[in-house]
Amino acid sequence: GTHSLRLTLTRQLAEVLLRGYTGTKYMPPTSNGSGVIKKTMNASPWKPRMYTGHNLFIPKNEYEEIILLLLISEAMAGREAVLSQSPEFKEARMQALTNATAVYDLLTVALVRWGQVHLLHESLERALKFSYEEPHIWMQRALCLESMGLYVQALAVAKEVARMAP
């Protein structure tokens, strides 16, 4: 379906915002506070509807917008993860890992830049379920633990990375 397209588009939008957005023109989403914004006769059919409610997060600045996009991308990448280590699933597993790694690399850049290392640690913990014997995500986790001051855990993970990729 459109799942992989949506994953790619949300990740690429976050990447565009992360790479070159200055923040001077950012306008947060707005609503009228009455639930669904009604369509007008002039509204484009391609313009998404906006919803309001108690459990909705509306970003206040470009940093929150980028993190939201990347966390949505992470959730979508996690849904397409192939956990089976069977040889017949190798290609699908590698494609899912490539997509997830791109998201985690962007999350690393964004969250470290804005001092949100604990949030990065949570994301990298979730990534371990589909990064079996894949040293890249494990090395990011080791570096994240080190930046959090968890040196003993970081060393243990770094030793595991050295075992994976001698």
From TrEMBL:
Organism field: Triatoma infestans
UniProt similarity note: Belongs to the YPP1 family.
Biological processes, Gene Ontology terms: phosphatidylinositol phosphate biosynthetic process; protein localization to plasma membrane
Domain Tetratricopeptide repeat protein 7 N-terminal: 1-124
Descriptive protein name: Tetratricopeptide repeat protein 7b isoform x2
Domain of life: Eukaryota
Its biological purpose: Involved in endocytosis.
Gene Ontology CC entries for this record: plasma membrane
Organism classification: Eukaryota, Metazoa, Ecdysozoa, Arthropoda, Hexapoda
